[in-house]
Design a protein that fits this description.
With 130 residues, the chain is α+β, with helices and mostly antiparallel strands. The chain is built from four helices and six strands; from the N terminus they run αββββαααββ. It has a four-stranded antiparallel beta sheet with strand order 1-2-3-4, with helices on one face. A two-stranded antiparallel ribbon has the order 5-6.
Length: 130
């Protein structure tokens, strides 16, 4: 009734354990680690990590390449703040003027909900997951 595949009697040895494990896993398919192709964000937003595209309720949000790189970076660590230095290095390859980064974030927020990207005071920015 329990669908047991085998059993062990005491005292048991290593060979018996291995034999029972082989028997138990003989017909099972290898377990694949799940790939996280879509990251579910707040307010109906989702990010497709394969296509590097942001969607809201299934409709693609029109963002430029730098904005998509920014979103993609934040989605690599959902819910965790990413420093301004990490953001600049990822997008521009070097540190840029604070105004340049703020301008990019303003453009992203103008195309999305204000709640999607949060400023973490003194640390950087994070994307809000559902």
């Amino acid at each position: 009734e329990a669908k047991a595949i085998g059993y062990l009697t005491k005292p048991y040895n290593e060979a018996q354990i291995i034999a029972n494990l082989r028997l138990a896993f003989k017909d099972s398919a290898p377990v694949k680690s799940p790939t996280k192709e879509t990251i579910v964000l707040i307010n109906g937003y989702s990010f497709d990590t394969q296509k590097k595209r942001l969607f809201q309720n299934g409709i693609e949000v029109d963002l430029g390449p730098k904005a998509l790189k920014f979103i993609s970076l934040l989605c690599t660590q959902p819910g965790i703040s990413v420093s301004n230095e990490q953001i600049c290095t990822h997008i521009w390859g070097q540190m840029v003027d604070d105004r340049t980064l703020r301008s990019l974030i303003f453009r992203v927020r103008s195309s999305t909900d204000d709640e999607l990207i949060k400023n973490v005071s003194g640390l950087g920015y994070k994307i809000c997951i559902a």
